[in-house]
Batch of 4 targets.
Target 1
Amino acid sequence: MEGARLSVVIVNYNVKHFLEQALLSVRRASSRLPVEVFVVDNNSVDDSVAMVRNKFPEVKLIANRHNAGFSAANNQAIRLAQGEYVLLLNPDTVVEEDTFEKCLRFMDEHPEAGSLGVKMIDGAGVFLPESKRGFPAPLVAFFKAFGFSRLFPRSRVFNHYHLGYLDRDQTHEVEVLSGAFMWLRKSVLDQVGLLDETFFMYGEDIDLSYRIVQGGYKNYYFAATTIIHYKGESTKKGSLNYVRTFYQAMIIFAQKHFSGEKMRLFVTMIRMAIYFRALLALANAWSKKIALPLLDAGLMVGGLYFVKNFWATQYYNDPHYFEPALYYFNIPLYTAVWLCALFFSGAYDPPFRLRRLVGGLMWGTLFLAAIYGFLPLDYRPSRAVILLGAIWAVLSTVSLRYILHFIRYRNFDLGREREKNLVIVGQKEESQRVRYLLHQVQVRRNIIGVVAPMETEDWETYLSPISRLEEVVYIYKVDEIIFCSRDISSQEIMAWMTRLGPQLEYKIVPDDSMSIIGSSSKNSPGELYTVDIHFHIATPMARRNKRVLDFLMGMVLLLTYPMICWPVERKGNFLLNCIRVLTGKRSWVGYASGGGTAQTLPSLRKGVLNPASGLRYPIQDEPTQQRLDFFYAKDYRPFDDLDIIWRGFRFLGNK
């Protein structure tokens, strides 16, 4: 756009619903300003490109055929930008209606400013500390990496990384801004250069902020306006991938801008931090996964010892009746079988279901009873030990879950998902549309009612005007609020989120959208209530069952190979496929289509066969293959794999 004062650049990758909301907020914020908007799509497969073309014809769309990375994609648009200023904006953000006007005014009044960042809150209304940061000098990075900044959040020494000692509600000169919202003077970019494409993810904003300061300009944190940034610094800050990627970016920064002993010290400290944080991430992940099974195992072992002593004394009148094998063989065996049965029954998968727990223990007990007769005589104690142990296992594990649930929630509604109390803020027409969307996606909520976005006395339609929203939340014990963005401004939404606090969940329904968008914290990916398909193959139990089936079929086929291989084509490759499946490199059944739709479905290992294998009429066209993949993922059951393997048996030697 010729004469544009601002060029907004948004890089998108498979976040269509968030992008739609971001562009709607940008459209409103641009209504009184000459603004051009670029969307650079990094080869998304979620119809983001079609959505932008249909709903936002004013946007200049660059549709890449590959994922160019964040820095390179931004640079594509910056080179075409005509604005006096360039704004790098994440697609998972919402800006206030006057954000652009305020930022433009500030930059015009401060010619020494090279870039500007704003106050950011997450989807729960919590301030994001990455809104303002300091340069990661060796000591600063050390305190950040080893947790001192979290222990002393307001310390000038220990939390210089997030500048915790600076008032978040005051405008300050700072060192580093976030790439989620980075307002840049185009003339400064021309002088210091564009984003460094060496940084694929993370670190490019630190590098650019550093070069702007080195060029003689200032970076400002501007507190007079606020944006929502749903995903915060990372969607999975505790993951090993985040640790590796983030700290590797720090190493690249150090090698680029430091030299000599300072650079070596920085890199050494960062490498130490990588191992330290990776160890913490692994410990955290494993502790969450194994804590409950370990507690269950302790209860089972303790219970079996008690049952053994009780039965030996009361029934046999001999405390030493049982052989020593019971201690080192039977008790560990029973415990292991019951734990495996719980695991495969889904007893450790959220949400908790009592039937999974009891059913798993019953199946485990039946398995123990079935193999009992095959054990040597020395390893066959009384069957009563198995039966009484199973009863104890059920009672103790159920009781444990009730206790843990009570400690956390102060109630005994175990296994019952209490419907959250929901209030809609919007006018009658939009609130009815929200109810329809919730019904369509089968989201169970106890809808308390509607709060009017203006003063009203229509008590039949509305609970209250928005000025009394805090009272409504308190009186009705509201858990979740959905704001209709057509009826209430982004600025007012953010103000209420901050005022009511993070104990509530907040979502926004964009105007003329089929999605309701929100996030409960900066560390979780945004949540969507959208008219999308739920794929059964994405559930933990379905994935686990598929992997178990793969392994068992691999063992059976490998052991019976001499007897069953005659109908199989490419017999040598058949053996190789058995090894690949057993080692987890392949699955017996995967998707038929290699790209396109398959990329939008839950990921699977490459399959030896696919839903089209062995059909009487061979499938040649891609659309039919994609539809078969879609229904396979949507309605998956383990018997589907068995049917496909039986039908396509002669193709088990496929490459």
Note: The chain is about 45% helix and 15% strand.
Target 2
Amino acid sequence: MKKLMLVVAICLVTYSLSHRVATAQSQPNVIMITVDDLNQWIGPLRGHPNARTPSIDEFSRNAIVFRNAVCPAPVCGPSRSSILSGFMPNRTGVYNNSSNMLNSRLVQNNATLPEYFSRHGYHTLSTGKVFHGHDTANGEDVGQWAFDTYFDDPLFDTPDESKVTDSRINVINGQTPSPNLYPDGDRTKGLAWGPTEDRDFRNTGDYRKVEWANEQLRNGGGLQEPFFMSVGIYKPHVPWFVPQRFFNRHPLKNIQTPNVHADDLDDIVTTSGRPQFRPQRDFEWVDAFGLEKEATRAYLACVSEADAAIGILLNKLERSRFADNTIVVISGDHGWHLGEKLRYHKNTLWQESALTPLIVRTPEVRARTSQTTYCNNMVNLVDLFPTLIDLCGLPKKRNLDGESFTDMLDSPSTNVAGVGVTIGRTGVSVMSRRWHYIENTTPDRVTVNSQEFYDRRNDPDEENNLLANPNRLDSEQRRALGWLQRHVPSSFADPVASPRPASTPRHLDETIRPARAHLR
């Protein structure tokens, strides 16, 4: 009898172990690639005629490309906090880059995306800018505490100082131009570009990061499955310093600059009749010295550098044993202006800043398509959290703000009526496939300063603010406006405090990871 019981026990243990192995092997791996400040200037989205992104183009042939993906917030910190926590800024209180999501009570009580995967059997690993970085009392926080394995490496590359263009210090191609537009010392926000000091792409930060990721994918490398790998590509974030080879891909004489309308801001006025916006100083600086083509070229060169880095990683994945069982997501974190609306940079609620690429390939999508498939429905990057846990068969996390778009991956051509909400520091954007409503408020969100309403189909550059003449709205426009306005959040969490870090930091993981051991 004892022998029989021992045999049964051994069989049960063997079955349990084999069942766990089979379950682990049936679950797909995940590689999530986030490209900093990437707007829609990539080949599949045809956002710019000079865009050169062969790696993304090739990847998209077996993937779903979302034409109308919006960011949850139009600047790095709040957007990444939303994507990785699953909660919109109005619930976490993270509205600007200085606010660390860990100071939000909601985030303190809930697992982030990589933590959730780790708690459900995935090995999580990361490199590059995935979480937004912060100095804290416990050391530098770049989100390393959220992963089982993290590789840190500098983000910035060193420029050739003799060829730098920099609006902050009023230098063009290493020379000081005349006149000095801001003799009072009032600096611009900062645009800088030029070739790197080291011409070798293999010495750039983005290359080193994807090479580290490739090492994890090498056969026999000991990578535990299933895994969740997150890779942050830093370009095209400013400064735009990349090897000369990427500038060479975009001859200056061929560069087309975006449509810029000098009166584009005239129809956006406050309730008191004053202009809501003025041209940004970086725009004025570029315009004064006629550098529009140079700035456009520099951004495109950085997009090409990011694409090259992505290609190195994807090529390694294709040659690995993980190729047929890995979900791959390529996305930005928000968009970027290149002169549109008389500005550069991000952090606006216009479409240039709110829209960003999102491309998803699952093993099922890869198996059924060999050409780029588009989905025109509105999605939000905050939807990635519930979508990925759905695709990987993990337990649903029902308190998330996002909604799974797995059905769109199965049937991308099905029209789904929805909106994408983007929350800025002083306003809200609500966008549908055709319409776009923007509500500009005071920082306390008590008073609405101005409103904007655009017909995206008939006014693709969003030049004509229909609310400049609200009495002229027809019945269709009024219905659409009311529908979008109903999606503006009714409540906003208080802004998360941004405490100054202590002068003597402790080790970050030793203080943060134990405190997050019992999250939902």
Note: Residues 222 and 266 are 60 Å apart (CA to CA).
Target 3
Amino acid sequence: MPVAERGVLDLSEWDVARDGPIALNGQWEFYWDQLLAPDAFKSDIAPPQPSGFMNLPGTWKDQELEGKALPGQGQATFRLRLLPGPENLQLALRLISIHAAYRLWANGKLVAQSGELGRSSATETPHRSLVLARVASQGKPIDLVLQVSNHAFRRGGLLYPVLLGLPDQLELIHSRIWSWGMFFVGSLLIMIVYHLVLYFLKRKESSTLYFSLDCLLLICYYVTSDPSDWLINLFIPNMNSGILQKISVISYPVMSSVVYRFYRSLYPVDFLRFIQNLCDLRNIAFVLIVLTQSNIVIYTALYWLALSTVLLNCYFLVMLIICVRRGRDGASFLLLGYLSFSAATLSEIYGHIISFFEGSILLFGFLAFVLFQALAMAQRFANAFTAVENLSADLRTEMDERTRLEREIVNVSEEERRRLSHDLHDGLCQQLVGTRVRCAALTRRQIAEHDVEAEVAAIASLLTDSVGQAYDLSRGLWPVELDPGQVEASLAELARRVSRASGIVIQFCGNLPCSPCRNEHLVQLYRIAQEAVANAVKHAKPSRITISLGCGPDRQLTLAVRDNGIGHRTAARTSGGLGLRMMAYRARTIGASLSIDDAEDGGTRVVCSLACPADKTSEDADG
């Protein structure tokens, strides 16, 4: 690419249509402290002599002139003579972010202007803008004269190169920058909404809030800064450049405080609060300067802020390396992201303070930074989900083991009830029967004393009642019929016994196609029926109770106890409730479903359903 030498740029070998736009870099004639119009160069008698030649893009600050370094503020004129090819083309010049006001002439015609030139801050109106100036090439030299005044910024000159090309080419560059910018902003907006939703769902996880604020500040900084061609103007046309400048310079330091809080919310042990406080004090002081001081003071403070940012970047990188070495979740992604972010911001600092560059990697650095932050958050969430899954698996194992132990306890309890029932039946009941028989024999003898005969008869009656109660107690603990497959007989006996004791009509209806039924949970179904009948007799005030046990074609073993009493909701207002909990516990232990509700035509209906596996049943010889 050709480069200007001593104020002349030869473009005769450069085909703009074929080779694309060209940056007008190199040596421009430099006229210090003069705002010369094109007419001044038409004089053949005493044309102005340049103060020297200056490489653009560049700044006149600290340039040597007559043995003295020039200040950053002042005014100057730049001149460049273009030698284009013989083609007759309509060209355009692209000028962006020239500090702080300028006018551009091409062959004596004013083609671009931004702000109002002046020789002091009182007479100058600075304005940073993007301009596409049209220039006609008719195969003749093009004389460019650029007047620049700077009394508002720390350094005067051109930070970005002036581009020459076809209008469509330069428009395409502008459109491409804004397209990438909108892609970046749209991606960040999605990140903001997503992580804000996460924060409102879980307020304790403050890292999602800081990540959202970080993305928002990145948007504010990028859309109001030079690398995006001030994308904000696409949505808010003609926005005041001074406001854009303040938003841009405030967003970046505030972002460092938010980023620190983001890292500290993830790794509170590693990132110190003391450094956070120092960072906050620095940023508060800078924001106050931006809001209250002139541009000269602001950009001087920005210089020192940039130097302190280099130290802060080093601290971030060191701490993230420590977090990686300590195996913190997501620290590797955050380190890679901050390396990208540091490279982008340091290149901007280098370009604005030390040297100049033609391109910016800020967008790609920001994209990498946000992407790696999102990956770090995703890794932390994934690890949290994995931990929850492992914990759930352990809890499920514990619950299975607890269920198994509960079944063992219930089985042991039933076995103990069976033993006590047999002991009562075979021991105490037999002794009481024997005593009753002897008393009955005594009553048949003639006893001289009439009172003794009456006492013996009374004792015989009491023994008869005691035998009945002992048998009832034995059957309640473990019905003698409750052997494998004989649950129907036990339920029928339960109906007869309770009906006889309570005076309530109780009927049993059984419909088990498999005989005998070998389901291992029949004992628990009997206990549930026993408790349901007892509750109905005690609370429902029924005149009829029906017990049914059946097995349908879907191999669902279903126990139903129904009464015609006052109903479940009415009875539930009475004291008690232990029996219902016991039924629910037994049903849960055997994996059955239990429902207790009011029947449609009155009364209460208790239904317990249990899946009956095929290998737990026995069929007849014919299959």
Note: Confidence is low (pLDDT under 50) at residues 616-623.
Target 4
Amino acid sequence: MKQIIECVPNFSEGRDQNTIKQITDEIESVEGAKLLDVDPGKATNRTVVTFVGDPESVLEAALRAVKRASQVIDMSKHKGEHPRFGATDVCPLIPVSNISMEEVVVLARKLAERIGKELGIPVYCYENAALDKKRKNLASVRSGEYEGLKEKLADPEWKPDFGPAKFIPRTGAVAVGARDFLVAYNINLNTASTRRANAIAFDVRERGRVKRKEKSLTGEVIKDENGDPVYEPGLLKAVKAIGWYIKEYGIAQISINLTNINITPIHIAFDEVCKRADARGVRVTGSELVGLVPLKAMLDAGRYFLKKQQRSVGVSDKELIKIAVKSLGLDDLYEFKPQEKIIEYMIAEQDTEKLIDLTVEDFMHETASESPAPGGGSVSAYIGALGTSLGTMVANLSAHKRGWDERWEEFSDWADKGKKYQDELLHLVDEDTIAFNRIMEAYGLPKSTSDERNERDKVILEATKQAILTPFRVMEVAYDALEVIHAMVETGNPNSVSDAGVGALAVRSAVMGSYLNVKINMQGLNDKSFKEEITGKANEIESKTIAEVDRILKVVNNKIRQL
């Protein structure tokens, strides 16, 4: 699945639109990186830019942006209210989908090293990317700001992680980090009282509220030995919150920053605010997401609310998002549009039309056309997805079967597992055609010189291997999906056993059809060890699939006779 990261660099220029555009043009010049937002501030003289994409594209776009900023921003002349110490002040990377924080840390350090080596700018790594514990906090890294940077760089303890330990008046230094995704989220209340909204916010936010000797807003504040107020922690970690009044809508809101949605996700924050509001005689009417949100956050919310209803979570992403939107009340103030609010969907607009986006009829006609792709590989992957979906269907029906209420979670787990297999097989429908097209492109490369011939042969070899590995992956996933079908044949709703049987037959066809593609793409491949390894594994998968489907069909036919 495609890995996506976000980058939110802050540049020390918020007034000159031409300068800002030169920087953002560099980002937009990189294929695979998508500019989402440009937010300049005059008072701070600072611009926050947000863009996303695959890791390599984002790193390249970030490097180009940092380079351009070093050319068009002169820090020796910069004035602004926000703390800063460089033309590109901070450049954090954030995991969005199909990538771990550990992987993003590696990417952040790679970017920092490139900035230091290729651009000659001092770089400090902060947050999760910090190479030194005392540099984890951005405030520590940036202490002294630009005006104190010359002295700081001369201190051996503050030698940059990458780049020269040298003060460059024009560029200053850069802080490159890796941090969690931050979600700006507001919860709507049926009151206009900011005081009540704040009381709820203090209940839930991590910092909590000031401790007082008496349980009242006017009670004497308890202070520590340093004379600072002592706080009573709130209920939720990684949450910042405050209450405010929105004149436009005539309501109060809880304005929340979820600084780590892996610790406190959207749905948990929403539910906790609902509980605290109810305890104070206030009702939550809905909520709004400010900016963008990762797809996973919406899918997790959908699953959470379905589980609360004791309903199966093995449904489509579209249905999960619908449940999340309705449950969170995200269309309370205005229509929530997933295509404009979910990061992965925003990026998908760049992509060319996918086979899986076609109607069933259009897919059929496209397959039947004179074009060689889509062919047997894509069709096999699609058959596998359809077969798996029948197993998932039986799981969902079983989860909602009258009299089986106590078993809903058992079948929900099977349905969710089936959905994961479906999603990967659907992804492989297009991947197979992409792999085939890469081979065609490789054969079209020039071969006039010996260097060109060697490069062409190398590209053809790699493209051919990918064209083998893609249908082989279809075999692996389709075979694994049989576990769902087998379980539903044995324990699922007996009235749907024939559907599960058809699913097993479809999966068998997917495995055998994909193997034909593996075999034909191996013709002419000179890598003997690769061929032997894949052939051995593929033979085993095909044999196990045929045997397993035979077992499944025996059970299916026996159960049909007993009906």
Note: The first strand starts at residue 4 and ends at 7.
